[in-house]
Amino acid sequence: MSVEEVIMDPNSDDIPIAQIALPGNLAHELEYVGSTNMTLLVSVGKLVGSENLLLVPFVDLDIDVDTDVGPEAETALSASISFDNAAFTVCSLADNLSMIADQLVQMSSGELKPDPGRVEVSKHFVSQAEGHLRRCLESLSQLGNQAKPTSNNR
After folding, report:
1. Domain count, the chain
2. What residues are paired with 54 via a beta bridge?
3. Which of 103, 102, 90 is nearest to 130 (CA)?
4. pLDDT band at 10 (very low <50, low <70, confident <90, very high)
5. Whole-model pTM?
6. Cα–Cα distance, 59 to 83 (Å, whole number)
7. Which of 6, 59, 78, 147 is deepest in the core (most CB within 10 A)?
8. Is residue 21 in some structural domain?
9. pLDDT of residue 23
10. Pairwise CA distance, residues 50 & 88, whole Å
11. Is residue 151 situated within a structural domain?
12. pLDDT above 80 (res 1)
């Protein structure tokens, strides 16, 4: 490698992470997700053709990205989506990450390997996500066990 730049990841959850030198301007081209936020929004609605009132959950989703060259994070995505679409998004991201991890295993079967420290940080975040998703599934199971909506007699 001729000209090297160093990448740093600020969101290692206070786990020490090695700096990595990359060729050329690649490090300046990388962005990292600095924060994500989901906020619950609710409305009252009803199924089409029914008078039964329902609580309809929505999510305000914000994903902020940053670069090593920019002074502040900027919002890469800001959207209001249904709760079930937020669940789909998480599922899709997890599926994609799993496929990428499988590809990385195949690619690293030779002489070059990923940095073990960064692999550990990745495992840490995936493990945390697993716990969060388990808790979410438990909450959704509680919702599924609640009484069905009643009709509005007004």
Report:
1. 1
2. 45
3. 90
4. low
5. 0.82
6. 6
7. 59
8. no
9. 84
10. 26
11. no
12. no
- Going by pLDDT thresholds of 50, 70 and 90, the confidence category of residue 154 is very low
Q: What pLDDT was estimated at residue 54?
A: 94
Report yes or no: 79 and 98 within 8 Å, Cβ to Cβ.
Answer: no
Domain range enclosing 81: 29-145
- Only one residue has tokens 């890469």, namely 76
Query: Is 133's pLDDT higher than 70?
Result: yes
Query: What pLDDT, on the 0 to 100 scale, is given for residue 80?
Result: 98
Summarised one tens digit per residue, pLDDT across range 43-68 is 999 999 999 999 999 999 999 998 66
Cβ atoms < 10 Å from Cβ of 147 = 5
DSSP 8-state secondary structure symbol assigned to residue 11: -
Whether 63 maps to a domain, the answer reads yes
Q: Where are the alpha helices (DSSP H) in the chain?
A: 26-29, 83-107, 116-145
Query: What local confidence, expressed as pLDDT, does residue 91 receive?
Result: 97
For tokens 């206070």, the residue is 14
Tokens matching residue 89: 């998004």
Separation of CA 90 from chain center? 6
Q: Which residue has the tokens 């996500």?
A: 129
What is the amino acid identity at position 96?
A: N
Q: How far apart are CA 18 and CA 117, in angstroms?
A: 7
Amino acid identity, position 7? I
